[in-house]
Design goal:
The complex is a heterodimer of chains A (about 220) and B (about 210). Chain A is built from eight helices and five strands, in the order βαβααβααααβαβ. By secondary structure, chain A is of the alpha/beta class. Chain A has a five-stranded parallel sheet with strand order 3-2-4-1-5, with helices on both faces. In chain B, strand 4, helix 4 and strand 5 form a beta-alpha-beta unit. Chains A and B meet through helix 1 and strand 3 of A and helix 8, helix 9 and helix 10 of B.
């Protein structure tokens, strides 16, 4: 057999002729396991109902192909992977590294205290939003954007740079998915803390993809 | 939750035909629980005609041909245990749309039924591989200009077809959508002048393309 596993090899980077419809679905990390209206079951049903052609998730290709998902988010292991397994939805790992927002810690002192307080505020906001429509609504997005920006400011500069670089790589992976299979319906599921980072980066590629709300995918 | 009013694809109607009531009932419950399927009522003979697929359990393979002669329009999938490549070949030659093994999880049954409903040949991966290798045994690799007409992506798909992977597995392996894989397969079939993935795989192995 001449077969070689080179699945992530991308096709030509030239602009696709058909625009890809891409929607972003934000998750709330471990809060999904709590008794909320936007719980894991809700996430499962939502993704199954949207039935995208491709489902981009925050897992590294290495972790996905080796089946080692213990380091990935609860919502990925318990909701997205099972939905993909039970349907024709193809899961595409797009995370460049396993680091998540909560893995970046502020230095000890007032900055750590501030970050802890901001995290409590964010969790309060997530509980109050308590539903996919609310989490994707303008009020929560502004709230989340403000808190996350302040939290990022409390990190060390190198951590901020690493977080920014990770989001750039994540967007690059999403663009590779779009270029490899243009014209498909793509759902990108990421933790809500990334939204203010990746949306502007994706918007810069309007010639290749059309960002729509998840309800319109 | 958001209410999404999207037109759902019609359910695939499956008619169960088998000699054992208990097995039929169990399979019926299993199929009803699988998304995208519904059972055709088993009272009337006409339901064989109305069904999209017939899931047939036969004690003897020799009974297949008479059944298919009686119901020439039915897409028949055989369910049995421990298929040999020779038996699978006989079943396919008789006109079966696929051979399924009892020793497979329910999800595999669902996938195979979807495959058959799309007009593909449904075989367990290992059986497909054995069948292809059996058919290709002793054949000398030859060149075929049709291969040159395949795109690099289509050539990438050929070894995966020969491995017996279904469309979802190929899509997952290449990180492409299932619809894209279906399009590539249709293109491969047209270029190679074959009608199914099994024929494409046989041709690929015969000509040493994989």
């Amino acid at each position: 057999m001449k077969y070689q596993k080179n699945a992530m090899q991308t096709s030509s980077p030239s602009a696709p002729t058909v625009k890809t419809r891409l929607a972003l679905l934000y998750t709330m990390g471990d809060l999904h396991a709590e008794p909320l209206r936007y719980d894991l079951n809700c996430l499962r049903l939502l993704v199954a109902d949207l039935a995208p052609d491709l489902l981009c998730v925050e897992v590294t290709q290495e972790a996905w192909e080796s089946g080692q998902l213990s380091a990935s988010g609860l919502e990925i292991r318990s909701a997205l992977v099972p939905v993909s397994a039970a349907t024709d939805i193809v899961l595409v790992p797009v995370a460049p590294s396993p680091a998540r927002f909560s893995d970046y810690a502020s230095p000890p002192g007032w900055r750590r205290d501030l970050a802890r307080w901001l995290d409590l505020c964010l969790r309060w906001g997530q509980r109050k939003a308590d539903g996919p429509e609310a989490i994707h609504g303008p009020i929560f997005q502004t709230f989340c954007h403000t808190l996350c920006t302040l939290t990022e400011l409390s990190w060390k500069p190198q951590d901020r740079a690493a977080w920014e670089a990770q989001n750039h790589s994540l967007v690059e992976s999403i663009l590779q998915v779009v270029r490899r299979d243009p014209g498909r319906r793509v759902l990108v599921v990421v933790q809500c803390q990334r939204l203010h980072r990746i949306v502007p980066l994706l918007n810069a590629h309007a010639e290749e993809l059309e960002i729509v709300s998840y309800q319109e995918l | 939750m958001v209410a999404l009013d999207r037109a759902r694809p019609a359910k695939i109607r499956v008619r169960l035909v088998g000699p054992h009531v208990l097995i039929n009932q169990a399979l019926g419950q299993l199929l009803s629980a699988l998304p995208g399927f519904e059972l055709a009522p088993d009272e009337a003979e006409s339901s064989v005609w109305q069904a999209d697929l017939v899931l047939l359990i036969l004690p003897e393979l020799s009974d297949l041909e008479p059944f298919i002669r009686q119901h020439p329009q039915a897409r028949v999938l055989l369910l049995s245990l421990d298929w040999t490549p020779a038996e699978a070949r006989i079943a396919l030659q008789a006109g079966a749309a696929g051979c399924l093994d009892f020793d497979q999880p329910a999800e595999a049954l669902g996938r195979a039924l979807h495959q058959a409903a799309r007009g593909e040949v449904a075989l367990p991966a290992e059986l497909a591989r054995d069948l292809i290798l059996n058919l290709a045994a002793g054949q000398t690799p030859t060149a075929n200009p049709a291969y040159d007409s395949l795109t690099p992506r289509e050539r990438e798909l050929l070894p995966l077809i020969c491995l017996g992977l279904d469309n979802k597995q190929i899509a997952q392996r290449l990180y492409l959508s299932v619809r894209t894989v279906e399009n590539h397969l249709a293109s491969i079939y047209a270029k190679l002048g074959v009608r199914s993935r099994t024929e494409a795989a046989v041709l690929a192995i015969q000509h040493g393309w994989v």
